[in-house]
């Protein structure tokens, strides 16, 4: 953490850190895997850990270097099942870490009953909701 970015892994995340720092908005979307986000989304969120600063007390106090910057995010999750209960904590698993980092979550979208690749584009109502969320994010960042 001395570098203030994660440098121990060579997975390309170092290419995203400048983009994260340079943008105020973030959109996270994950399919539901076993009531949770995918392993790739979890890894992405875990790699944002480097934006935290900790003190030397135990239990340690912490702060986020991304907080207080009017950062905003939109979240979406896609689930094969028809009940939001079957989505589990997919949205929460994205929301809680982003809020801790200092992002205001301005909207969430739960997409249910979709499994096959590309099927979301056939769901006009879902596409309209996603478009509205994107527009709301853009408006909130323009203020």
UniProtKB/TrEMBL annotation:
Pfam families: FMN_red. InterPro entries: Flavoprotein-like_sf (IPR029039), FMN-dep_NADH:Q_OxRdtase_AzoR1 (IPR050104), FMN_Rdtase-like_dom (IPR005025). This is NADPH-dependent FMN reductase-like domain-containing protein. Transmembrane segments: none annotated. GO terms for molecular function: oxidoreductase activity. Residues 7-55 form the NADPH-dependent FMN reductase-like domain. Signal peptide: none annotated. It comes from marine sediment metagenome.
């Amino acid at each position: 953490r001395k570098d203030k970015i994660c440098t121990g892994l060579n997975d390309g995340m170092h290419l995203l850190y400048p983009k994260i720092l340079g943008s105020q908005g973030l959109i996270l979307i994950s399919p539901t895997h076993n009531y949770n986000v995918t392993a790739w989304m979890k890894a992405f969120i875990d790699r944002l850990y480097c934006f935290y600063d900790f003190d030397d007390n135990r239990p340690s106090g912490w702060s986020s270097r991304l907080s207080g910057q009017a950062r905003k995010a939109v979240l979406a999750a896609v689930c094969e099942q028809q009940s939001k209960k079957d989505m589990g904590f997919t949205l929460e698993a994205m929301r809680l870490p982003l809020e801790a980092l200092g992002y205001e979550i301005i909207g969430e979208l739960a997409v249910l009953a979709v499994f096959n690749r590309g099927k979301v584009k056939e769901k006009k109502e879902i596409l309209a909701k996603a478009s509205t969320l994107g527009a709301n994010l853009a408006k909130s960042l323009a203020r």
